Amino acid sequence: MKKHSLFIPEYVTENIYTITPFLLAARGYRGVVFDLDNTVAPYERLQPDKATQDYFAALAEAGVQTALVSNNRRERIELFNERLGVFIVADAQKPSPRGVHRCIEAFGLPPEQVLFVGDQIFTDCLAAHRAGVDCYLVKPIKSKETFFFRLKRAFEKPFLSIYRRRRIKSKGCN
Hints:
The protein is of the alpha/beta class.
C-alpha cells in the first residue's frame, strides 16, 4: 500500500473538469470518488447542471467508475444523483474512511486505481488517505463565509504550501 502524507494532496487543480478521462487513464485511475458539496456542485444546487451531467457521462464512456460521497443527508445526495445514477454514500462522516472504502468495494478495484476528488483537506484529503487512495484537491466552487470555514481554510494554507514546494522540487525547478 502506498504511503500517503495524510494532509498533503497528490494533486491540486481548479475544478473537476480539468480531471479528464485521458488524465485519469494516464495516471492509472479506473475509479473516482467525488465529494459532492462545493466540489461537484454548490451547496444550494439540488440537481446537476448539463456540464456536470456531460462530464460524468464522459467518464462513464471512458470506462471510469464514479461515486459521490457526502457528509450531507441521504435525501440531498439521492436527489442530486437522480440524473447521474452513480454509486452514492450519504452521511459519510468524513474524515472517516468508511465511505471511501464502500466505494472501493463497489468498484471492485484496488485502492491504487481509485482517486478521491474533494475541496477540503481536513475532511476529503484525510478520508482519502486514511482509505489508502490518492487525493485530487480542487478549489471550492463557492467560498463559505462562516467563521468556522474561514478558520478551516486558514489552517489548510500551510499544507497547500507544502504541496506546491514538493511539486516545484519534483519538477527540478528549485
